[in-house]
């Protein structure tokens, strides 16, 4: 059997990238990150933007664009910055789709990630940078194995966006979407 702990504390200080949470005599060190799922319509199919990681952990593996939130940075601003730094793509309209925090999701340390999603009416040109070796649009029906827990993040984003489109509560796209694109998005099933 497992022992579960429920900790209530307060943010005490920032030490570099780390946030120190104190609760009586217990100190928990964790980082906050953002990940971004960019879905784009490419004439006849939906694609997703992935990066090939340049550094460990998961060096050479595919992942969502993302990274650590800076000390004085708002979460959506961090998502936009990471996307621009790693892929060269600049976006404004994002939707927060969830928070991911399994203790072992990052082998380096405890990391809580806030995921954002963007819907694009076309593929944007990419330019890998920062800690991304490559930035490539992949068809949703041909995704490679993903680093961290990014497969779970992609699945949640897809389901949430499909629910929004089914209910006609469209996330503002970067431009007009054809009825074929909207119908195609509703019908995507990941393997």
Tags for this entry?
disordered N terminus, 34% strand, single chain, 191 residues, 9-stranded mixed β-sheet, alpha+beta
Describe it for me?
- The chain is α+β, with helices and mostly antiparallel strands and 191 residues long.
- Helix content is 20%, strand content 34%.
- It has helices spanning 75-87, 150-166, 179-186, and strands at 10-15, 18-23, 26-41, 46-53, 62-63, 66-68, 95-100, 111-120, 132-139.
- Strands 1, 2, 3, 4, 5, 6, 7, 8 and 9 form a nine-stranded mixed β-sheet that branches.
- The chain is globular and about 55 Å long.
- Mean pLDDT is 85; it is low at 1-12.
Runs in which pLDDT lies below 50 for 5 or more consecutive residues are: 1-12
Mean pLDDT: 85
Q: Please give the oligomerization state of what you see.
A: single chain
Q: Based on DSSP secondary structure assignment, what is the total number of beta strands?
A: 9
| Helix fraction bin | 10-25%
User: What class do helices, strands and sheet pairing give?
Assistant: alpha+beta
Strand content: 25-35%
Main sheet makeup: 9 strands, mixed
DSSP summary: helix tally: 3
Bulk shape: globular
Topology order in helix (H) and strand (E) letters: EEEEEEHEEEHH
| Rg calculated over all Cα atoms | 18 Å
User: Roughly how many Å apart are the termini?
Assistant: 33 Å
């Amino acid at each position: 059997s497992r022992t579960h702990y429920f900790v209530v504390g307060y943010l005490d200080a920032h030490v570099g990238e780390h946030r120190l949470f104190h609760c009586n005599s217990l100190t928990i060190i964790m980082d906050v990150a953002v990940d971004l799922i960019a879905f784009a319509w490419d004439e006849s199919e939906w694609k997703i933007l992935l990066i090939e990681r340049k550094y460990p952990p998961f060096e050479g593996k595919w992942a969502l664009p993302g990274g650590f939130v800076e000390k004085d940075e708002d979460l959506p601003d961090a998502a936009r910055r990471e996307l621009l730094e790693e892929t060269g793509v600049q976006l404004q309209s994002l939707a927060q789709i969830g928070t991911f925090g399994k203790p072992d999701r990052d082998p380096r340390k405890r990391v809580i990630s806030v995921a954002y999603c963007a819907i694009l009416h076309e593929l944007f040109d990419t330019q890998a940078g920062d800690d991304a070796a490559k930035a490539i649009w992949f068809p949703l029906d041909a995704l490679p194995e993903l680093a961290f827990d990014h497969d779970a993040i992609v699945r949640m984003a897809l389901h949430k966006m499909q629910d929004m489109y089914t209910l006609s509560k469209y996330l503002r796209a970067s431009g007009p979407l054809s009825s074929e694109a909207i119908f195609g998005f509703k019908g995507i099933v990941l393997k």
